[in-house]
Design brief:
Layout: E1 2-8, E2 11-17, H1 39-49, E3 58-59, H2 72-76, E4 86-94, H3 98-107, E5 114-116, H4 118-130, E6 134-144, E7 147-156, E8 159-160, E9 162-166, H5 173-180, E10 186-187, H6 190-206, E11 211-219, E12 222-229, E13 231-239, H7 254-258, H8 271-283, E14 287-296, E15 306-315, E16 319-328, E17 339-351, E18 356-365, E19 369-377, E20 388-399, H9 401-404, E21 423-436, E22 441-455, E23 478-491, E24 497-506, E25 516-529, E26 532-545, E27 553-555, E28 570-572, E29 574-585, E30 590-600, H10 612-615, E31 621-631, E32 638-645, E33 651-656
Parallel strand pairs: 4-7, 9-12, 13-15
Antiparallel strand pairs: 1-2, 3-6, 4-5, 6-7, 8-10, 11-12, 14-15, 16-17, 17-18, 18-19, 19-20, 20-21, 21-22, 22-23, 23-24, 24-25, 25-26, 26-29, 27-28, 29-30, 30-31, 31-32, 32-33
Helix pairs in contact: 3-4, 5-6
C-alpha cells in the first residue's frame, strides 16, 4: 500500500489505506450457520479486494488538532476514493475512564455492521477530539472475520488543578476564580476552558480596558495564563489652531489641563477613562474641541503592549464683556407676571492661564438690583481632593413683596400704606469650598457675612411695613448675620434624580446679631413613561431660633405653588412643597405639560416675627393645577403656564428653568 498524509491544522494526520482485506489463510474454520454472507459471496468480494495481493493492517489516523481535510495528494490517489467503503464490524474506545468512554461513544457516528469511507472515519475521530476532553485520538483498524474492528485510542487531558493569571493588573482575581471554579478537579475540557478564556477577554471589552489572554501553558495540571494589558507610555498635550489645525502656543498652562487627566503614564489604558478625561477638559469651559489620540509606543510588543497618548486641544475665547436680560419672579411685585431685568458683565474664565474665573456683573430691574464680584479657583493649588474655592462680594436689593406685600388674591385693590413696596437690601461677602465626595456626591462648606436693611420705594430706610409688623429682627435699621453653610448634593449617574441637603448655622458674635439654624432639603425624580415622562419633586425647610421676616420661606408663585401669586400661600418658618408634572413632546423643541402643586406652612406662619402672612389673611396651605408649554433654549427651558388655584381665578406664569 501507499502511505498517505492528511492535512490537520498546524499538525498532520498519517494514514495507511489499502483497499483490500488480508486474504484468509488456509486452515481457518469456515463460518457457521447464521452467517450474513455465504462463502461464494465472500470469496468474490475478497478476490476483488485482494487485486494487489498484499497483506495489510490499518492505522487510519492520529489526531493532533481539532479538524482536518484530505490533502490534495490523497484526493488524486485512486485508492482513497470518497465512495469506497469498508465494513466496520466493531467500534471500541480504549484508554478512557468509563465516564469519558461514554462521552467518546456518544460523539461517534460510526456503528458496527455498517460500511464507511476513510473520510467518514476521519471526521468521526475529529468529533471525539472536538468534545474537548482528549489530548490525542488515534483510530486503529484490525481485520476480523466479520470486517474491520475500529479501536479509537484516546489520551485524556490531565486534571485541571488550578489557574494562575500572569500579568493581570486590571483584571480582578475574583473574575479569574469565577471563570474556572467549576472546572477544578475535573478532566480539562478544551471547549469549556476556551469559554472561560473568552469570558476574561469579554471583561476587558466590557470595561474598556485594552487587554486579552495571549497564551496558555499547562504544567502539571496548573494552567499558566499569560495576559497582555496595554500600559500607558507617554501622555503629551498639544494645542491646535482652530482654523488651520496646526500646532500653536496655548493660553492655558499645561499643568492646568494635565491635572484633569486621570490617565497617567504607567496606568493600564482604559478607553472609558479616556472619555471621562476628555469630558473633564470640556467641563473647564476653556476648549472648543478636545480629542485623544492613542498610538503604539516604540517599545510596544505583543506580550507587553504600550500606547502613547496625545491630547489635542483647540482653545476658545475665555473673556470679554456681555449684556443681556432676564426675569425676576418677585420683580413684578404682586402680579402674576415677573419683572424684567437688564444686565451687563465682564468675565474672564481663564485668569492667568490657570483656569480661574473672575466675574463682575451688574443687574438692574423694576424692583431688583445687583452688583457682584466673584472669583472661582476650580482646583485650589492642585489639591488631591479637587477642592474648589469661590470668593464673592455682592450688594443686591430685591422686592420684599412675597413676604410684606398685600394679598393680591383677596380682592383688596387698595395698597394701604404701600405695603407691597418694601425692598430688602443685602450687603454680603463670603467664601465657599467645594469638592467631590464620591462618584455621585459632592459637598460644599462656606461662611458668609451679611448686613440686611429694608427700605421703601423712595430708598428710605423703614423699620415697619404698612401693617405695623417689624421688618428687622433687631428692631434697628439693619440686621447683621454671620452664617456657616454645609451642603451635600447627590446626582444619579443617569441624571434622572437629584437630592440636595443643606444646613446653615448663624453665629451671634455680638448680642444684636441674628442667631438661627436653618435646614433645607430638595428631591427630584424623573420617571419615563414611553414617549412621556413624569417629573416629581419635593422640597422643604425648617428654621430653629431667631427668624427675621425677610428670611422666612415664601410659599406660592411660579417656582412653588402655581395659581397663586408670589408668596400668596403664606410665609413660613417650616414648610413643605410638592409638585408633579407630566411632560409630552409636541413639536421639537416644544413640549406640553400638565402639573399640580401643593404647599403648606405646617402651621408655622404665626411664629414669624409680626406674623406677616396672618396679617394679610394668607391661607397657609393651598394647591394649584394647570397646563403649559416649554421650549428648550440655550439659557434653559422657557416656561409659559396657566394655573388655577384651589380658591379664586387662574393666572399666567412665565419662568426660566425647571421650576424645581
Amino acid at each position: 500500500g501507499e502511505r498517505e498524509t492528511m492535512a490537520l491544522g498546524g499538525g498532520s494526520w498519517r494514514a495507511t489505506w489499502l483497499p483490500t482485506y488480508r486474504r484468509r489463510e488456509k486452515g481457518k474454520k469456515e463460518r457457521g450457520e447464521g452467517e450474513k454472507e455465504n462463502k461464494s459471496e465472500r470469496k468474490e468480494r475478497n478476490d476483488r479486494r485482494s487485486a494487489n495481493g498484499k497483506k495489510q493492517t490499518h492505522v487510519w489516523a492520529r489526531c493532533k488538532g481539532s479538524c482536518f481535510d484530505i490533502s490534495a495528494n490523497d484526493q488524486d490517489n485512486p485508492n482513497v476514493e470518497g465512495n469506497e467503503r469498508i465494513l466496520v464490524s466493531e467500534v471500541v474506545v480504549r484508554g478512557a475512564t468509563p465516564e469519558l468512554e461514554r462521552v467518546a461513544k456518544e460523539a461517534l457516528h460510526t456503528k458496527a455492521n455498517f460500511a464507511y469511507t476513510l473520510q467518514e472515519v476521519q471526521e468521526d475521530v475529529n468529533r471525539v477530539f472536538a468534545t474537548g476532553y482528549f489530548a490525542q485520538c488515534k483510530p486503529v483498524a484490525e481485520d476480523t472475520r466479520d470486517g474491520v474492528k475500529l479501536t479509537v485510542e484516546v489520551t485524556p487531558n490531565q486534571e485541571l488543578r488550578g489557574v494562575v493569571a500572569n500579568g493581570a493588573n486590571a483584571l480582578p482575581q475574583r473574575n479569574v476564580e469565577e471563570a474556572f471554579r467549576d472546572q477544578y478537579g475535573r478532566t480539562l475540557n478544551f471547549t469549556r476552558f476556551g469559554e472561560a478564556i473568552r469570558s476574561l477577554n469579554k471583561w476587558y471589552e466590557d470595561h474598556g480596558v485594552f487587554g486579552q489572554v495571549v497564551d496558555v501553558d499547562m504544567q502539571e495540571g496548573i494552567a499558566q495564563l499569560k495576559l497582555a494589558e496595554a500600559v500607558v507610555g507617554k501622555v503629551n498635550l498639544k494645542f491646535l489652531d482652530g482654523e488651520t489645525g496646526e500646532p500653536t502656543k496655548g493660553k492655558t498652562q499645561s499643568k492646568v489641563i494635565m491635572r484633569q487627566i486621570a490617565t497617567k503614564p504607567g496606568a493600564i489604558y482604559n478607553i472609558r477613562q479616556a472619555k471621562r478625561d476628555i469630558d473633564a477638559i470640556y467641563s473647564m469651559g476653556l476648549a472648543d474641541d478636545v480629542n485623544l489620540l492613542p498610538q503604539p509606543a516604540e517599545d510596544s510588543s505583543v506580550d507587553h503592549p504600550k500606547v502613547d497618548l496625545t491630547i489635542n486641544v483647540v482653545e476658545r475665547s475665555t473673556g470679554g464683556f456681555s449684556a443681556g436680560g432676564g426675569i425676576s419672579a418677585q420683580g413684578g411685585g404682586e402680579g402674576a407676571m415677573p419683572g424684567f431685568v437688564g444686565s451687563c458683565s465682564y468675565s474672564q474664565r481663564n485668569l492667568f492661564g490657570l483656569g480661574q474665573k473672575l466675574t463682575a456683573s451688574l443687574e438692574l430691574g423694576q424692583a431688583d438690583s445687583l452688583f457682584r464680584i466673584h472669583h472661582t479657583d476650580p482646583w485650589v493649588s492642585g489639591d488631591p481632593n479637587r477642592t474648589s474655592r469661590t470668593i464673592s462680594i455682592q450688594n443686591n436689593r430685591s422686592s420684599g413683596g412675597a413676604i410684606h406685600g398685600k394679598d393680591a388674591d383677596s380682592g383688596d385693590q387698595e395698597d394701604s400704606g404701600g405695603g407691597g413696596n418694601v425692598s430688602v437690601g443685602r450687603l454680603m461677602g463670603g467664601v465657599e469650598y467645594g469638592r467631590p465626595l464620591s462618584t455621585c456626591w459632592s459637598g460644599v462648606a462656606g461662611i458668609t457675612w451679611q448686613k440686611t436693611s429694608c427700605s421703601d420705594e423712595h430708598g428710605r430706610t423703614i423699620l415697619q411695613d404698612s401693617f405695623g409688623s417689624p421688618l428687622t429682627f433687631s428692631g434697628k435699621a439693619s440686621d447683621t448675620t454671620l452664617v456657616a453653610l454645609i451642603r451635600a448634593v447627590y446626582g444619579s449617574p443617569t441624571g434622572d434624580s437629584q437630592l440636595v441637603l443643606s444646613m446653615e448655622q448663624a453665629f451671634p458674635l455680638r448680642p444684636e446679631w441674628v442667631n438661627f439654624n436653618r435646614l433645607r432639603a430638595r428631591a427630584e425624580r424623573t420617571v419615563p413613561l414611553g414617549l412621556m415622562r413624569l417629573a416629581l419633586s419635593a422640597k422643604g425647610g425648617a428654621v430653629f431660633g431667631d427668624l427675621p421676616p425677610y428670611e422666612a420661606f415664601a410659599i406660592g408663585g411660579t417656582n412653588t405653588v402655581r395659581g397663586y401669586n408670589e408668596g400668596g400661600v403664606g410665609s413660613a418658618k417650616n414648610y413643605v412643597v410638592c409638585s408633579s408634572e407630566l411632560h409630552a413632546p409636541l413639536i421639537s423643541p416644544v413640549e406640553g405639560c400638565l402639573f399640580v402643586d401643593y404647599g403648606t406652612d405646617l402651621d408655622s406662619g404665626a411664629s414669624i416675627l409680626g406674623d406677616p402672612a396672618g396679617m394679610r389673611g394668607k391661607p397657609g396651605r393651598g394647591y394649584g393645577y394647570g397646563a403649559g408649554v416649554r421650549i428648550d433654549s440655550p439659557v434653559g427651558p422657557l416656561r409659559l403656564e396657566y394655573a388655577f388655584k384651589d380658591r379664586g381665578a387662574g393666572r399666567f406664569h412665565f419662568g426660566i428653568g425647571s421650576g424645581f
